[in-house]
């Protein structure tokens, strides 16, 4: 009997020694970030060591971080059942519940560990998770915002006309490019109403009025209303909405626009975002009905927040679209029916705490389907624009603004070529 007992004890000691060795190997792989290898090793030893809290802890971590979250939860639940005061197991289990969106269970375990006053590094990590849980489970209040802007500036080509007479067509003086001073008013109001932690309704209204000093026939007004539904899903957002716009020139309706659009965005890293969009618009002109068209567009933008003294925020994007006339005709084929494409890039810089400077460039190419009715060739336009924007936030509600833009349009048809410069200074009041 004594020999049997000694043999049994030796067997148990050897089994525990092997278990400790396997567990250390799994832990070492976990510490190196080799979670898939750790999970595979644990799976091979599962029949022998499942139920050992030390083994189950490392097995649970490997399973969670290799994508087998449910398996990891079962392993860690065994550990917590056998060792109710095992703070590390509770932390890993709380993280697993969070990943499976079992947020109430996750919050309970995080708070249990937090109550034990863990080290500062662990406490900070717990607080980050608890903040995310609060954001995911709390419906934020309805937000109202808006602004009013007053501008004064100079536009050296108010009608986007060529700078001089063309060779084929003799233009009237009113058709040539000319400059004038202007004043401008911009108004905006928006509301965001969340009816769940992940779903919101958004509405906005904008008005833009420009008044030229000596060329009132070029005055314009635009009124735009937007509405959309926003879905938030972890690092992704989806937005589906509508837009409607009325554009007037010299106090008469010129064009109306009605459209639908969708936006998908994804937080790639802590400092980068990818956005893609698509939309369809119906354009209707009050008198120039041959311009009526359906416009389809899609594109992608990438934003990256860099590091450094000026806190650069880089952005770059591209787009592609098609504009098709609603009514066929010679004029529509040569001046409406087109494929357009382009790109933009820029950076927002913060040289001082309350000052932002944003230079950007834009290119758009347009290739028309039919021959121009005068020149009898297919029109090809290339649009280039440099934009410089400066904002100084003097007070949370007040900002001084400055903007300069230079536009250069090249075309294989001379009457569509022009340059344009605008410089303007403004004052904004923000409503919160």
TrEMBL record:
<feature type="signal peptide">
    <location>
        <begin position="1"/>
        <end position="20"/>
    </location>
</feature>
<dbReference type="InterPro" id="IPR011990">
    <property type="entry name" value="TPR-like_helical_dom_sf"/>
</dbReference>
<dbReference type="Pfam" id="PF14559">
    <property type="entry name" value="TPR_19"/>
</dbReference>
<keyword id="KW-0732">Signal</keyword>
<protein>
    <submittedName>
        <fullName>Calcium-binding EF-hand protein</fullName>
    </submittedName>
</protein>
């Amino acid at each position: 009997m004594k020999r049997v007992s000694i043999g049994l004890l030796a067997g148990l000691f050897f089994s525990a020694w092997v278990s400790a060795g396997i567990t250390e190997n799994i832990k070492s792989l976990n510490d190196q970030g080799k979670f898939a290898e750790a999970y595979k090793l644990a799976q091979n030893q599962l029949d022998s060591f499942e139920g050992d809290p030390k083994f189950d802890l490392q097995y649970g971590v490997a399973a969670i971080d290799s994508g087998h979250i449910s398996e990891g939860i079962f392993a860690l639940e065994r550990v917590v059942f056998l060792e109710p005061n095992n703070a590390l197991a509770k932390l890993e289990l709380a993280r697993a519940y969070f990943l499976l969106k079992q947020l109430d269970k996750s919050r309970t375990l995080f708070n249990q560990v937090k109550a034990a006053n863990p080290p500062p590094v662990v406490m900070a990590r717990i607080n980050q998770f608890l903040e995310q849980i609060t954001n995911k489970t709390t419906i934020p209040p309805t937000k109202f915002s808006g602004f009013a802007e007053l501008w004064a500036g100079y536009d050296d080509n108010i009608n986007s006309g060529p700078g001089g007479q063309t060779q084929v067509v003799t233009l009237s003086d009113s058709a040539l490019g000319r400059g004038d001073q202007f004043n401008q008013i911009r108004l905006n109001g928006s509301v965001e109403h969340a009816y769940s932690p992940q779903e919101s309704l958004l509405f906005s209204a904008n008005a833009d009025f420009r008044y030229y000093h000596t060329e009132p026939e070029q005055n314009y007004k635009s009124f735009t209303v937007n509405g959309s539904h926003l879905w938030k899903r972890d690092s992704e957002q989806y937005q589906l909405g509508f837009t409607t716009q009325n554009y007037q020139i010299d106090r008469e309706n010129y064009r109306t626009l009605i459209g639908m659009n969708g936006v998908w965005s994804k937080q790639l890293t802590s400092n980068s975002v990818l956005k893609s969009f698509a939309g369809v618009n119906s354009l209707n002109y009050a008198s120039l009905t041959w311009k009526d068209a359906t416009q389809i567009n899609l594109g992608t933008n990438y934003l990256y927040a860099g590091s450094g003294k000026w806190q650069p925020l880089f952005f770059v994007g591209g787009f592609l679209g098609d504009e098709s006339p609603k009514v066929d005709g010679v004029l529509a084929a040569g001046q409406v029916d087109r494929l357009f494409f382009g790109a933009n890039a820029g950076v927002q810089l913060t040289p001082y705490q309350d000052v932002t400077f944003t230079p950007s460039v834009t290119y758009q190419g347009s290739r028309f389907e039919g021959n121009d009715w005068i020149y009898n060739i297919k029109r090809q336009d290339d649009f280039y624009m440099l934009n410089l924007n400066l904002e100084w936030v003097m007070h949370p509600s007040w900002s001084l603004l400055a903007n300069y833009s230079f536009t250069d349009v090249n075309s294989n048809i001379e009457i569509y070529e022009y340059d344009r410069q605008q410089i303007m200074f403004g004052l904004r009041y923000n409503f919160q």
